[in-house]
Prior knowledge:
This protein is an alpha+beta fold. It is built from 33 helices and 11 strands. It has a 5-stranded antiparallel sheet, with no helix packed on it. It has a two-stranded antiparallel sheet with strand order 1-2. Strand 6 (716-724) and strand 7 (731-740) form a beta hairpin. Helix 15 packs parallel to helix 17. The protein is elongated.
Amino acid sequence: MRKERMPAPIRLRELIRTIRTARTQAEEREMIQKECAAIRSSFREEDNTYRCRNVAKLLYMHMLGYPAHFGQLECLKLIASQKFTDKRIGYLGAMLLLDERQDVHLLMTNCIKNDLNHSTQYVQGLALCTLGCMGSSEMCRDLAGEVEKLLKTSNSYLRKKAALCAVHVIRKVPELMEMFLPATKNLLNEKNHGVLHTSVVLLTEMCERSPDMLAHFRKLVPQLVRILKNLIMSGYSPEHDVSGISDPFLQVRILRLLRILGRNDDDSSEAMNDILAQVATNTETSKNVGNAILYETVLTIMDIKSESGLRVLAINILGRFLLNNDKNIRYVALTSLLKTVQTDHNAVQRHRSTIVDCLKDLDVSIKRRAMELSFALVNGNNVRGMMKELLYFLDSCEPEFKADCASGIFLAAEKYAPSKRWHIDTIMRVLTTAGSYVRDDAVPNLIQLITNSVEMHAYTVQRLYKAILGDYSQQPLVQVASWCIGEYGDLLVSGQCEEEEPIQVTEDEVLDILESVLISNMSASVTRGYALTAIMKLSTRFTCTVNRIKKVVSIYGSSIDVELQQRAVEYNALFKKYDHMRPALLERMPVMEKATTNGPTEIVQTNGETEPAVLETKPPPTGLQPTSQANDLLDLLGGNDITPVIPTAPTSKPASAGGELLDLLGDLNLTGSPTPAPAPQISQPPFLLDGLSSQPLFNDIAAGIPSITAYSKNGLKIDFTFERSNTNPSVTVITIQASNSTELDMTDFVFQAAVPKTFQLQLLSPSSSVIPAFNSGTITQVIKVLNPQKPSEIGFQDWEKTDLRA
């Protein structure tokens, strides 16, 4: 019985036309599946007549995104065919459907080798293209010799394909690079532009991968310069002309190779300076191809050791790019200028106005690059003008730019501010414009700046007061304003501002503003804390509204906000039980010193000039500081997370005041006022080490310091032992040992200590935070106290909190 022959499959053109008539994706899938089934049946029938047609249709389906892996072996069969049409489709299918991850590709190695030695150049070209496209490292090792032979042939068609195939071989197997070195000697002498182009690509690959090859090919710089000069000076050539420019693709490739060869080499750079200047001045810029050549020229000039005049010429070309209507060209120019601004700052500065104009561009990518470049151009000479433009940009830019722009303005203003008033005005303008987008440290930094600018206090508090009238949307601005009103509210009411016309404000109007901040729905919890603390501070600065302040503070003692409630409760306690201490606790903050992390010297930058500033150690006071000088407690009450420092009270003052202060801050129920005894051991003293007031803790170095029991109450016992540091006699090392005699473990144990300002304290980490019950273990912690002047009398006050839990 004779087998029935399948009908002839439809042609590729008909398949494309049919698929394009599909109205839905499902209809298209149905057509593809039906055709794939017919192709599979044809493959099973070993139909050699229509194999080429079926593989071509399969490749089209692959391009549409449908699976076509079942046609891989059919591609190999077409490659093995003697027909050129079959080989062409077979090699195309191999390049699309095969890669080195599939072992099937190794089966075609022998076919490619045979075709590389074929008598027809077009078959050889197909084999070279396929090997250069998807050849694996194994195939490249096996066939590199054949490629090297074709690279030496006189046939220009084969030489250009062999050069590109050699590039792929070098990428896959770099150690075969030297095999192609002899063949590269005469490549640049070729007149054919195709061979020249691929030869330059091959030389570029070899130079990028091997320093030895780079040094070897540097002698070719004069020849490359000559080729480039001929391209520039040659007349019209219809074969290579693109928009009036002779072979721009070859020019770009040569410029890239020159950039690699001239990098970090004086001789090579010198040899190409003239030709780069010619390219930069003779290239037509009205067409995009000319701009591409100019851009490569600029990159080459900037990357080699070129002359200063040539670099200025390159930056001027980028400046002209900024005026181009094409957004891509403007973006490329801004990116390139941003890379060169550090090395050629003055040359880029000449185009500052054009760069600033790019801030108004509608394209967000151009805006961002222009913003980054504008900040890079800011210096002490142009800071006022540049900040004016950047503030205008901040006011009108999209929200995604505001955070970066605000941070950049802060940094530039801090580095190049011509005056403190200008600095404060600039930061306030930023907070007013984009307060919700500023970084977290903007508020404390501005507070520190205001605090240190003593002569600007009245001006600043008046400006901030007017800035928040009726508008609490910018939370950082409201926080700074609340802090300043609390600190300098008396200056605001008195109208002492000299920098601008003072305003008439009453105490009640100031409190109205702060109360509005407290009740505003836009106020965050932190902002309310600032406002409540400011109201509390005003109780010592205002005289007629103290009763109103007491009422406001008492209201928030029952707030659902725990932080706000805690502040209000503490402030109520100040009013009711410790009113005599309130003026001392709430007096004005002292000038803040900038913290340093790397030793006593910090770098201060003013208007671009760097100068070291040595932080001076304050001399010790002539006498004991009164309690009113305990200014650091304002840090705690002002919302700053700073460990309070409590100086020693005078011996004539009853110790109960300090004990009450410890009760307030440490929740300790210490009510007695025992008379300090001369002996260091005191049972249940109200202050730790209070009994040492009559006996100096810092004795002569030779004298021993006895151990003491510093605290013994509720089952908790804390012992102190002392020793001098061997390396620095001014350092006393105190080791504490805490034990627990109760039946339950004490958890979350935290020990805190404070010293006067003239001393330095270092608390090392404790051995644990849990004290075992029944004296079964102890916690140890080391404290180091430094007296920078000399060993002298020192008083300690500290408080501790323990949570007694099982």
